[in-house]
């Protein structure tokens, strides 16, 4: 009887190698990355420790994650429109960003365990997203901050228009540069007046 080749220990972890003779069939299990062991080798089989999952990706189908991104974008653009002197658009985008940011931070409600279906209780808020909660919380908070700035700029602009209504009406009705310069007499002699003053 010819001698059989003994299995090479280096191929024990090879998924394409033939199993040793006499080993019973085992169900398929996903391979886990190897990590250093105390003895210098890599444990295999049930003794191997599972590795944590990779970074969570953005799921556009999740309404909580969508609202966090909407809050960040709307707040940013609302702030820009407020700086560029378009308070109506800045006010709208700031209000939308505030709503989306708050609803994203509140997240979904917690659900109790269902013994009939065997489902465990699910946490509420952004913690229900698991690893994806941290970037979505950062996006929602940044959206709230930029929305607050956009609302402050819009409110300041509307407040100035109410406080110095005569100046704005005079400036809008002026037909010449000379008439527009005469509207500066309606402004107070302070920092605000110097900012709103029509330049020569």
What does this protein look like?
This protein is an all-alpha fold and 200 residues long. Mean pLDDT is 76; it is low at 37-51. It is elongated, with a radius of gyration of 33 Å. α1 (63-83) packs parallel to α3 (133-163) and α2 runs antiparallel to α3. It is built from six helices and no strands.
Distance between the termini: 110 Å
Beta-strand content bin? under 5%
Gross morphology is: elongated
Instruction: Specify Rg, calculated over alpha carbons.
Output: 33 Å
Which structural class fits the helix and strand makeup? Answer: mainly alpha
Mean pLDDT: 76
Treating each run of at least 4 consecutive H or I residues as one helix, how many helices? 6
Ranges where pLDDT stays below 50 over 5 or more residues in a row are 37-51
Number-wise, the strands total 0
The portion of residues assigned to helices is: 40-55%
What order do the helices and strands follow? Answer: HHHHHH
Q: How does the major sheet shape up?
A: none
Topology:
Layout: H1 63-83, H2 87-106, H3 133-163, H4 165-173, H5 177-182, H6 191-196
């Amino acid at each position: 009887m010819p001698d059989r080749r003994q299995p090479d220990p280096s191929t024990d972890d090879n998924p394409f190698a033939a199993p040793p003779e006499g080993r019973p069939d085992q169900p398929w299990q996903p391979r886990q990355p190897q990590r250093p062991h105390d003895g210098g080798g890599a444990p295999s089989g049930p003794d191997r420790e599972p590795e944590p999952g990779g970074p969570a990706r953005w799921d556009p189908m999740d309404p909580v994650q969508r609202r966090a991104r909407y809050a960040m974008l709307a707040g940013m653009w609302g702030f820009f429109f407020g700086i560029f002197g378009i308070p109506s658009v800045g006010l709208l985008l700031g209000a939308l960003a505030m709503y989306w940011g708050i609803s994203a931070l509140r997240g979904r409600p917690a659900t109790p365990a269902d013994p009939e279906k065997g489902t465990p209780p699910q946490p509420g808020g952004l913690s229900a997203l698991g690893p994806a909660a941290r970037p979505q919380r950062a996006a929602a908070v940044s959206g709230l901050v930029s929305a607050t700035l956009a609302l402050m700029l819009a409110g300041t602009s509307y407040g100035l228009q109410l406080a110095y209504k005569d100046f704005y009406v005079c400036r809008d009705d002026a037909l010449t540069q000379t008439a527009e310069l005469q509207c500066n007499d309606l402004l107070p002699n302070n920092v605000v007046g110097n900012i709103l003053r029509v330049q020569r």
